[in-house]
Structures are given as structure tokens and as C-alpha cells.
């Protein structure tokens, strides 16, 4: 059972380039989340989804877009990467609405130069 | 002021010590309280969660919630070097029918032999 899988694991982008991070979960979870984690800042919610076809903004949504076309996938897009988006990105999923059983992926390390 | 405050540490203890990790929060609507452990360059993994106030024990780990003081704790008995990690507290309250967790910044724990 793979759980939550993120691709790619590492990526270096030039300023202004675009890219998409893919998150896939095989647990049939309704809720999915994208977080970024920076030193001293903890985990900050970028966007989340409460079901297929839905998305909502989190704490730090600017510069990012998301899509949830299929229940098992949650895509995070950077349209025009900036150095401030250098971070570790974590995808997570939740089997129910309680928020107490969140499962995280292994992370995607993104560097924007 | 962040909704959830957590001392980043690092907290350094000898093997076998009792460790106390704590978080304070300001949102009285929080209902679920969680502790995650994150090893270096890995995603967070759920350790324990409690609903509302009270204690919960799981092996060497005990979680306590004091809603009147808006204070939660995680105790680790007989700490081991393998417990060395960053511990994140998280809390959630209903937001538009969904539970979106808010994370503390994490406390780095070092258990030395």
C-alpha cells in the first residue's frame, strides 16, 4: 500500500519557469492538502480539496494553483516560479472530515534559482 | 500571534529521560488535538490524537489536553535516541464543514546516548 506519493522528489527551477507537483493517494480519501514547510515557519497550508472537483485556498495560496480532477490526484502548479517558492512541499490526505488522520507524503524539495 | 505556539527548541535530553513537549493555542473552537513526529527529510507521521480534553496513553507516549488553559502536552517516557526528531502539534476545528488542521512550528528533540 503506497499511501501518499509525491512526484518529483527533487526539482531545480529557474525563475519564471512553470512546473506541476503531482500527489497521488490510494486510500480513497476525500480530503487532500498541499503544505509548504520552511525553516522556522512550520507547515503552512497552500490549498486544499474536500472532494473531487473542489479546491479551496489555504493560508498562503498566492503564486500557486491546484486541480483535483480525479479523487486520487491533487496537482499543485507554479505558473511563474519565484525564489520565494523555494521550499519543501508536502501533500497530505484525510479519510474523513475529522482532520485527525492525516497521512503525509515524503515531500518534494523545490529550489528556484 | 499565531493560533498555535510551539517552542522550536532544540530540546536535548539524555537517554531514558522523561520528555515534555508543549503547545499553546488561542482558538477555543479547536476540537481535535494531534501530535506528529517528523524525522529529517521525511514527511510527518501521526503519533497520537485526542478529542476535546483529557489524557491518552499509547506505550511510552502520553498526550494531555487542557482546554481551560488552551495547553496541550506530549510526554515521552524512557526516551530513546530513535525518538530524536521534530515533534509537531496540530489542532483542528470545523471550517465550513471541513476540518482543516493548524500546525505548530515543531520542537526539535535530541536524545543522546
Report the helical percentage of chain B: under 10%
Count up the helices of chain B.
0
The end-to-end span of chain A amounts to 36 Å
Report strand % of chain A.
Answer: over 45%
The gross shape of chain A turns out to be: globular
Oligomer: heterodimer
The termini of chain B sit apart by 37 Å
Task: Specify the structural class of chain A.
Answer: mainly beta
Structural class of chain B: mainly beta
Largest beta sheet of chain B, briefly?
A: 6 strands, mixed
* SS elements, strand count of chain B: 11
Record field, number of beta strands of chain A = 11
Mean pLDDT of chain A: 93
Query: How large is the count of helical segments of chain A?
Result: 0
Uncertain stretches of chain A: none
Query: Largest interface, by Cβ-Cβ below 8 angstroms: which chains and how many residues each?
Result: A-B, 26 and 24 residues
Poorly predicted sequence stretches spanning 5 or more consecutive residues of chain B = none
SSE order of chain B in H/E notation? Answer: EEEEEEEEEEE
Rg of chain A (CA only):
13 Å
Describe the structure.
- The complex is a heterodimer of chains A (113) and B (113).
- The model of chain A has no long low-confidence stretch (mean pLDDT 93).
- Chain A is mostly beta strands and 113 residues long.
- Chain A contains no helices and eleven strands.
- In chain A, the strands form two sheets. In chain A, strands 2, 4, 5, 6, 9, 10 and 11 form a seven-stranded mixed sheet that branches.
- Chain A starts with a strand and ends with a strand.
- In chain A, strand 4 and strand 5 form a beta hairpin.
- Chain B is mainly beta and 113 residues long.
- In chain B, strands 2, 4, 5, 9, 10 and 11 form a six-stranded mixed sheet that branches.
- In chain B, 35% of the residues are buried.
- The model of chain B has no long low-confidence stretch (mean pLDDT 92).
- The interface between A and B is medium-sized, with 26 and 24 residues.
